[in-house]
């Protein structure tokens, strides 16, 4: 292996640092060449995170954080700081589907009075690699294979899993991407993380290590993987449409900003290295302090001008926020600006409206591609006398950014700290923290992904790798993909769990959930109207789905409007299904294969289902009885709410709306 200049490379795993836990050095020409080439591989879409969607909003702190940081936007609870957020998938191209199994980008640009601050994160708190020099290798592995450009937006192929098996620091991140976290229900129900370790620095110069969290008010919820696959074909814009429509109707997404903080003197008090980007700080060990809320209340006006041209950079910080020596973060501080130079056509991307700070900015950086500022005068240097040394640097008292004065000692070395070498304990912690349904979903994800890998040797290597995490998990993967368990497999000895990692412990609300009401001519209109009225009072959304759009005639010749048909809507678009009574409606729906399939699919995906009066007959036609527990009937199953008397509608509405808020009923036999 050589550089592009032909110089033989002695090390390609570690960037050059000041000591094994020190910062990355600018003189590392191999790292800069490798990363620069990677940053410029795609024109014009992003190399990663190409498929994105954005929204505007504001952030407001709950209280002053002056004890911890001097950052101005975190001081006054009465101040609203404008923000722009870009959500994205990582692996696919701009034209890929929203619902693919993937990590999601969660990037926030704060337009503060002290300058722009970018919190550039993901919906998963860890990453695949520990050192940024490995990033081009990682991305090359999960992108479509270069010889045939397949598959799109998927890691279910040989090169990714070959990379994983031979770079075992990825074990923890893979556990997350094989979990339900990788198929979110909505951007509005998706957690966000800063991933890296940063620093808060207060006015007195005291620093604390910090990690950032975004906690969605609606809770963290996911699709069933089969739903994700179906949506990729039937509605590839599912997530962006969901976000757009929520903001348009005034259901503004909200996220609480939380921070975990560790005093500098406690840096080495844990059984993991706090600078390792493949590790979390368990919330039960380092609690999350909620410090403010972000509300997204305005859709973008132009996707290209805003979402495509927005330029995020983890190096865009404000006084009071500083960096750590996390080696993945250190590399990103170089890479992001380098990428923007080619993607946005030169050094003036900060002048695009979506990137422009709301505070004044001025310096001696002139000219270049796409310059929009018309600079006046003869002087463009510092120091000068012809212009009274203007602009001049600001003092710390005037708000000038001063880097935290960390003492750094160490030999220049390409190495990683020994404290980074434990790759399996937190992967086991994650596994221990999952409920049984979540574990089954992960096993299915592993079997699907590895089942697409052609090389049996790679499949075997992956099983060998995860036998160090959990024996049962590895056995199930092996069984599904036709390889064997290694002899004398030694799984991780970790027995602890972290309840915060399971989505079953998240907030559960019915608000903004969508319900499909299956109906046809002859439907009992008063039941539909009464239930829809109850839905509206609780913020639940509903569509009437029928054989045709337009007005349906009810039993009493009243009209019920059908919003969707069985061709334009599918069970996977909804969180629950309601079937009202009316013998004529039910008799017609029984003859409609699409209606039967719609109901079966919702039942199969563990969704809440409600039946009123004759509506339950459709369940019998769909064969939804619990065959294993006969003669138990469908209306006695978990998450299925039924009444046979119209006078009980008030009770039904309360029970059904409560079920909608529960999201799924995993114990139901399907």
UniProtKB/TrEMBL annotation:
Gene3D superfamilies: 1.20.1370.20, 3.40.50.880, Catalase core domain (2.40.180.10). Its cofactor is heme. The active site is at residues 49, 122. This is Catalase. It catalyses: 2 H2O2 = O2 + 2 H2O. Decomposes hydrogen peroxide into water and oxygen; serves to protect cells from the toxic effects of hydrogen peroxide. There is a cross-link at residues 313-336 (3'-histidyl-3-tyrosine (His-Tyr)). GO terms for biological process: hydrogen peroxide catabolic process; response to oxidative stress. Heme binds at residues 46, 86, 135, 332, 336, 343. GO terms for molecular function: catalase activity; heme binding; metal ion binding. Belongs to the catalase family. HPII subfamily. Its EC number is 1.11.1.6. Residues 2-390 form the Catalase core domain. Keywords: Heme, Hydrogen peroxide, Iron, Metal-binding, Oxidoreductase, Peroxidase. InterPro entries: Catalase, Catalase_AS, Catalase_clade2, Catalase_clade2_helical, Catalase_core, Catalase_haem_BS, Catalase_immune_responsive, Catalase_large_C. Pfam families: Catalase, Catalase-rel, Catalase_C. One of its GO terms (cellular component) is cytosol. Residues 1-21 are annotated as: Disordered.
